[in-house]
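Most newcomers find our protein records easier to grasp once they have seen one. A learned vocabulary of local backbone shapes supplies the integers on the structure line. Here is such a record, shown just as it appears in the course material:
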Amino acid sequence: MAQTDTAADTPSLAKAAAPARTTASPHRWWILAVVATAQLMVTLDATIVNIALPSAQADLGFSDGNRTWIVTAYSLAFGSLLLLGGRIADLFGRKLAFLTGVAGFAAASALAGAATSFEVLVAGRALQGLFGALLAPAALSLLTTTFTDAKERAKAFGIYGAIAGSGAAVGLLLGGVLTEYLDWRWTMYVNVLFAAVALAGGWFLLQRGTRESGARLDIPGTILVTGGLFAVVYGFSNAESHGWSNWMAWGFLAAGAVVLAVFAWWQTRSTHPLLPLRVLLDRNRGASFLAMLIISAGMFGVFLFLTYYLQLSLGFSAVKTGLAFLPMVLSLMVAATLATSLLLPRVGPKTVVGLGMALGAVGLAWLTRLELTSTYTADVLPALVVAGIGIGLVMAPAMSLATSGIAPDDAGVASASVNTMQQIGGSIGTALLNTLAASAATTYLTGRDVTDPVVQAQAALESYSTAYWWSAAFFAVGAVITLLLYRRGVPSTDGDAAPTVHM
């Protein structure tokens, strides 16, 4: 996939592209394994703790209201610091950022696992988010700069995208197994094992990069984007826990939007911008960022509400629920690998990502047919497989195109932008779908006997169905946006976008 830039003949761009022409690392596939292990650790941590929350609550004695902070502390720190973490990786070295992130994540996990109070557990989760924000963009940018051959890059991103897309389901399975057979604390301690593998591999396999000459961190931009993203994530989290009528939800969302608008203005004037706007100018790259935002919001309809359905309506155990998602994981992995290595180079992202969005919508709409008498094999499994294929067709190509052709100096911040879209999308999906589902259940119960277990079960089913329909709508909107924004044919790059490398 030869990508060129109309400005590529200038000395500065030629210098930026030079690293891509060097000999590929002989250890690049081992590097992929190391990076993928670290990414899996970060991704599954978003869901692995969910199943363990009741056990942790009983052990540490905190209230139902405080329980949401175990999740929120992680998402706030992670979402608000991602762009800073990506820029640090660009300016001060990806290897250093990666190893620091892995080591810090392990230490934070150990702290959270050993927590003897609610406050310590929340602090550990917040530190996990902080170091995850340094680790995640460094991991993706390492992949971007390690694989420079188009065919190998396609395979690598297929594998990476499959892991990123299936991490939530793996977290549910692993969380159920560890909580049921060991202890809730092992949902934290298990990260130390993942980190040990990633740390050892990264130490020996990754090459130390040279610090950018005259590197400066955009302090005003850092403050603006961190504050803006914090307000947005907190606003959605507040809406999830207190409802959309709460003034803090709308207040923080409005404040976040204003601050982020000021951040965008500042980036056009800063001499060392935290997020160079040239990174966003490429049409396929911008479409990929939006695709990641939308699919991250829609995926919660599967992972969150189908988990409720399997456990509360069908009576599945935590372990059995996790196992129930495995067919989806397998179909996602196969689709992700085929999408980047076979389909994307032949028919382009408009068709591949558009088809994935459409299949995701079909899979979620299929789930709305579930009843209290439905069975897993006949009713749940087919929908899971279809949704898994759809997510795989979107996730891997979008990740690949969002970082494809980017100059090495911008790889970290481009990778951080991908992760930010995922985090914001997840926050939107969680807050919006939870609110809509709760409203549907309340409406169903109006005028009915709320003490009747059958009525309660049917109300829950109504809430799940509402969430599935809205998730399907997210995917349908994503399909339309994909068809409008992605270019026809095989991937190419806008001439006025960020400098590109030849692949």
Q: What stands out?
A: The chain is about 75% helix and 0% strand.
